[in-house]
Amino acid sequence: MEKNRVILVTGGSRSGKSKYAEEMLKNRDEVLYIATAIITDAEMENRIKKHIERRNEKWTTYEGFKDLDLVLESNKEDTIMLDCVTIMLTNLMFSTERDFDNMSLEEVEILYKQIENQFYKLISKAKELNKTLIMVTNEVGYGLVPEYKISRIFRDMAGSINQFIASLCDEVYLVACGLPVKLK
């Protein structure tokens, strides 16, 4: 892998995308790992624990999901791994109380632009500082149209954010069954 690249790794649940992204960094000890998950229940706590156990002990971990461009400015590592875009999106969606069932299309678009801006600032800052940034995300649009409005808003935002991020990346990989396919 070349230095100073922006890379997106996507795939379905349990597809091996995080493991693949970590493999890309197996020979690097100076990595800033941005963990966007928040412990909300025992299942999430267990998932986070498994990710921590698999992670290189020499990596620096930052737990958070907002204003990550500022985090890049204050860390010395030249390589960053963000896991995961979809959870970051979820946390940003719910960081303020909203009535998703009654949101207008205009309100949804405003929220989308705010979230898109968080990713734009992160990617722009990584490029500005000549850092390698690997982001892991989920493909969520392969299933049925969700029954509930909040789920449709999430699905649509996740798909649109993934497209937006991919357009700014140097490389994009789709992982299925633990096998990566280079898309870009």
Automatic annotation (TrEMBL):
Could you say which protein family the record assigns here?
Belongs to the CobU/CobP family.
The signal peptide here is none
Q: What does this protein do?
A: Catalyzes ATP-dependent phosphorylation of adenosylcobinamide and addition of GMP to adenosylcobinamide phosphate.
Q: Which domain of life is it from?
A: Bacteria
Q: What is this protein called?
A: Adenosylcobinamide kinase
The EC number(s) this enzyme carries: 2.7.1.156, 2.7.7.62
Which reactions is this enzyme annotated as catalysing?
Answer: adenosylcob(III)inamide phosphate + GTP + H(+) = adenosylcob(III)inamide-GDP + diphosphate; adenosylcob(III)inamide + ATP = adenosylcob(III)inamide phosphate + ADP + H(+); adenosylcob(III)inamide + GTP = adenosylcob(III)inamide phosphate + GDP + H(+)
Q: Which InterPro entries match?
A: CobU/CobP, P-loop_NTPase
Look at the named UniProt entry and state the broad enzyme category this protein falls under. transferase
GO molecular function terms noted in the UniProt entry: kinase activity
Which keywords annotate this record?
ATP-binding, Cobalamin biosynthesis, GTP-binding, Kinase, Nucleotide-binding, Transferase
Question: What pathway is it annotated to?
Answer: Cofactor biosynthesis; adenosylcobalamin biosynthesis; adenosylcobalamin from cob(II)yrinate a,c-diamide: step 6/7; Cofactor biosynthesis; adenosylcobalamin biosynthesis; adenosylcobalamin from cob(II)yrinate a,c-diamide: step 5/7
Cross-referenced Pfam families: CobU (PF02283)
